[in-house]
Amino acid sequence: MATQPPPTARPEAGSGGESTLTVVIALAVNLAIAIMKGIAGVISGSAAMLAESGHSVADTLTEALLLTALRRSGRPADRRHPFGYGKERYFWSLLAAVSIFASGSLFAFVEGFRAVFGEPVEQTSPGVAYVVLGLSFALESVSWAQAVRQVRREAAAEGWSIMRFLRLSDDPTVKTVFLEDTAALIGLLLAFAGIGLHQFTESSLWDGIASIAIGVLLACVAFILGRTNLGLLVGRQADRGLVRALHTRLAAVPEVDQVVDLLTMLTGTDRVLLCARLDFNDQLSAADLERACVRVDGELRAQFPELDEIFLEPVPRNDPQLRARVLARYGHVLNQ
Question: Residue 120 sits in a domain of what CATH number?
Answer without folding.
Answer: 1.20.1510.10
